[in-house]
TrEMBL record:
Family annotation (Gene3D superfamilies): Immunoglobulins
Secretion signal, residue range per the UniProt entry: none
Gene that encodes the chain: Fsd2
Domain (Fibronectin type-III) ranges: 46-142
Organism: Rhynochetos jubatus
Name under which the protein is recorded: FSD2 protein
InterPro entries: E3_ligase_FN3/SPRY (IPR050617), FN3_dom (IPR003961), FN3_sf (IPR036116), Ig-like_fold (IPR013783)
Pfam family, one: fn3
Length: 176
């Protein structure tokens, strides 16, 4: 049988043309889909910490925050402004800083002044919603002793001072 088969002429001509070799396949939709899969989402809102003890001087504050998620973050945007009862004030201008870490020390602030802080996280996909706002207070400036009003006797001394602070000071510590 094999000998008989090999003696026959076999027609291998295809009934359809092989034009698939000339086609250009459009992968743009697939490429868009792949790019959307590889994109990282915008981060969640950071959580700003309340003011820590000893985190303030008369002219500076150390502000800290964190994330409750494993978001990819490239930097943070820290915003702050002085807290004021006045509606429109030049001193109430909003300041913005770009920060790489989850903490920042802000300098050149006014003594015994409240500042409102909030922070957002940024990555290649966008910016997070802002954190809740937190109020921090700078330390009061040192009082000025009124040397002309000092009085003393054998068992006591009277020392008077004056505070240069606009806001009231909670307490003073007198050291002998």
């Amino acid at each position: 049988r094999l000998k008989e088969f090999l003696k026959k002429e076999v027609d291998l001509e295809l009934s359809t043309l092989p034009d698939f070799e000339e086609r250009v396949i459009d992968f743009s939709e697939a490429e868009k889909l792949m790019n959307s899969i590889n994109a990282i989402p915008a981060p969640c809102a950071p959580v700003i910490n309340p003011q820590a003890p000893n985190a303030a001087t008369g002219t500076s504050l150390r502000v800290c925050w964190g994330l409750f998620s494993d978001d990819t973050v490239e930097s943070y945007q820290l915003c702050y402004k002085p807290v004021s009862n006045e509606r429109c004030s030049d001193e109430q201008a909003e300041h913005t800083l770009k920060v790489k870490e989850t903490h920042c020390t802000i300098t050149n602030l006014l003594p015994n002044t409240q500042y409102e802080f909030w922070v957002s996280a940024l990555n290649a996909s966008g910016i997070s919603p802002p954190s809740e706002r937190a109020v921090y207070v700078t330390a009061p400036s040192p009082p000025t002793i009124k040397s002309k009003r000092i009085r003393s006797c054998e068992n006591a001394a009277l020392v008077c001072w004056e505070s240069g602070d606009i806001n009231p000071v909670d307490s003073y510590m007198v050291e002998l």
